[in-house]
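Anyone up for a design puzzle?
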């Protein structure tokens, strides 16, 4: 059982690549941990005013969640790796994003990386969660609220479609629930601001502007 262990450590290291920091550094921009919500994530990079940097951050943070899960799903079987290992590597990449070994264990909130993990489990599951995010973000204009709603609905989608769209695996279901709980916990400051009516809206003021 050495392959699942190696895969899990590799996924954690991949998840530890904080692309909000890496992408902004490569583009000669300010470190997102110094402005806005101080979060190294796509939403806060967007507050810099650079849509390109935000989209690249979102894509790469999602890829690092998707890749380990997809690789295990595609090539794991001959090495004794199936759904249990998919759950493990997905969770490891997510934990790497929250507590990155390369960035003093100070990471992000895990939204884009969780989306990648869901896409690795099933494209439909990922699309359903992403659509939930888009709908809430469109109507309420809060990225954090949209992320919290998607995290709440994702496990429900996974379990409700069991038997119809896919055969749900308990370990994958558990990984989705754990990611959702940690994601919500990482949004505690956002929740406080939402309740106080102080949360910043998408498309609102940029860093440096009034
Ligand atoms: O800076 O604290 P902030 O306002 O930036 O940021 C709050 C925000 C942090 O997250 C991000 C990533 C933004 C991603 C946007 C597109 C996402 C589509 C999401 C599907 C979510 C799946 C969650 C599954 C959980 C199990 O929240």
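Challenge accepted. My sequence:
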């Amino acid at each position: 059982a050495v392959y699942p262990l190696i895969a899990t450590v590799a996924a954690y290291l991949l998840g530890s690549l904080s692309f909000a920091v890496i992408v902004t550094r490569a583009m000669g921009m300010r470190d997102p941990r110094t402005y806005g919500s101080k979060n190294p994530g796509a939403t806060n990079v967007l507050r810099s005013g650079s849509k390109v940097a935000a989209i690249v951050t979102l894509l790469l943070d999602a890829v690092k969640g998707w890749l380990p899960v997809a690789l295990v799903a595609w090539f794991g079987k001959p090495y004794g790796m199936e759904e249990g290992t998919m759950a493990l590597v997905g969770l490891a990449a997510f934990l790497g994003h929250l507590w990155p070994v390369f960035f003093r264990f100070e990471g992000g909130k895990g939204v884009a990386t969780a989306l990648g993990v869901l896409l690795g489990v099933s494209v439909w599951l990922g699309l359903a969660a992403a659509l939930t995010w888009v709908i809430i973000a469109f109507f309420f204009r809060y990225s954090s609220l949209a992320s919290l709603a998607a995290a709440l609905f994702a496990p429900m989608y996974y379990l409700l479609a069991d038997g119809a769209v896919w055969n749900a695996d308990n370990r994958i279901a558990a990984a989705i629930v754990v990611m959702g709980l940690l994601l919500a916990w990482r949004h505690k400051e956002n929740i406080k601001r939402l309740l106080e009516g102080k949360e910043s809206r998408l498309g609102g003021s940029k860093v440096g502007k009034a």
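A detail worth pointing out: The longest helix spans residues 51-75.
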